[in-house]
Write a structure and sequence with these properties.
Elements (H helix, E strand, L loop, with lengths): L21 H26 L1 H14 L10 H26 L2 H29 L4 H26 L1 H7 L13
């Protein structure tokens, strides 16, 4: 027994291409800005290592604590971690730009963790800032503040309704049955 071929429903509209909302585009720009800010922070920290080490030593002396700031391994590890974070942010931005739902969730998790890290590092660095030159404190707080603002932007922009619609799973379209 043979069955007649299935025909599509009459007047089935063609699926419209998904339009990326500006909220997603701005969130991606903010993620790229975060990666760039991270690289700028690495350059800033490398250029001011001696200034920071001197401030840490003075702070430790005032607190009657011994500390060794002559380690270069920590600087290398810090650079590598910053490069990995920048690459991760760029990767997340790329997949968010393409509309990947899992990446949006991963971005929320990563941005939330980075937000906590930035806030805590800014708060716990305040006592040391009393021993650094004013320009160092200003630049460091500016970079931290810009990171916090960009992270909040990413989290909020990806949670707005136009972004939700963009990342929503598209409805299933009619598929003709497979022939014999």
């Amino acid at each position: 027994m043979t069955f007649p071929p299935s025909t599509p429903p009459p007047d089935a509209p063609a699926p419209a291409p998904r339009q990326r909302p500006s909220t997603v585009t701005y969130a991606v720009f903010a993620q790229v800005a975060l990666a760039v800010l991270g690289l700028i922070s690495v350059v800033f920290n490398l250029a001011t290592t001696d200034t920071l080490n001197q401030a840490i030593e003075e702070f430790a002396a005032d607190q009657n604590v011994e500390i060794n700031t002559n380690s270069t391994g920590g600087g290398v590890i810090s650079i590598l971690i910053s490069l990995v974070i920048a690459a991760a942010l760029i990767t997340l931005a790329y997949f968010n730009y393409r509309g990947n739902r899992g990446t949006r969730i991963a971005t929320w998790v990563v941005a939330g963790l980075f937000l906590c890290c930035n806030l805590f590092s800014g708060i716990f660095s305040l006592p040391v800032y009393g021993y650094t030159p004013g320009w160092y404190t200003a630049v460091s707080l500016l970079l931290t503040g810009l990171n916090v603002i960009a992270l909040i932007l990413v989290i909020v922009l990806l949670a707005l309704p136009p972004s939700n619609e963009f990342f929503r799973k598209p409805p299933e379209q009619w598929q003709p049955p497979v022939g014999y």
